Amino acid sequence: MSLNHEYITQTKGICGGRPIIRGTRTPVRTIAGCFKLGMTLDEIFDSYPHLKPQQICAALAYYFEHQEEIEADIEKNSEENLMKLYPPTETIKK
C-alpha cells in the first residue's frame, strides 16, 4: 500500500500492515493512544526519545486524517480484546 506521507508508511507483513512511523516499528495507533490518554506532546516526546518530534507530529496528523481507521485499530489491539482472543491458560502444577 502506498502512502503520500513523508514519515508514515504501511507495508504488508510489518506490524500487520498497519500504519507505522517510517523506519521504525512504532504503529500510529501507539502514538494516537498516548494522545487519547491525555499525554501532552512533550510527554509523548519524552516517552519515545528514539523518535523525532516531526515523526510524532506526523503520526498524530495521520491519526486525525484517518481517525476511524486508527480508532478501530486501537480497539482491536486493546487488552480486553486481546484477552478474549488469547485467554490466559492455567499454569500446569507439578
Provide an overview of this structure.
It is a single chain. This protein has helices at 28-36, 41-47, 53-65, 67-76, 79-85; strands at residues 8-9, 20-21. The protein has 94 residues and is mainly alpha-helical. It has a single domain (8-85), classed as Winged helix-like DNA-binding domain superfamily/Winged helix DNA-binding domain (Arc Repressor Mutant, subunit A, Orthogonal Bundle). Helix 1 crosses helix 4. The longest helix has 13 residues, at 53-65. It is globular and about 45 Å long.
Low-confidence runs (pLDDT<50, min 5 residues)?
none
Rg is 15 Å
| Average predicted local confidence, pLDDT | 88
CATH topology: Arc Repressor Mutant, subunit A
Q: What is the overall silhouette? A: globular
What is the succession of H and E elements? EEHHHHH
Number of strands: 2
- How far do the termini sit from each other? 50 Å
Total helical elements: 5
Sheet-strand content, in percent, reads under 5%
What is the second-level CATH architecture?
Orthogonal Bundle
CATH class: Mainly Alpha
CATH superfamily: Winged helix-like DNA-binding domain superfamily/Winged helix DNA-binding domain
Q: How would a crystallographer describe the biggest sheet?
A: 2 strands, antiparallel
Q: Any chance you could write out the topology, listing elements then pairs?
A:
Elements: E1 8-9, E2 20-21, H1 28-36, H2 41-47, H3 53-65, H4 67-76, H5 79-85
Antiparallel strand pairs: 1-2
Helix pairs in contact: 1-3, 1-4, 3-4
Summary, kept brief:
This protein is mainly α. It is built from five helices and two strands.
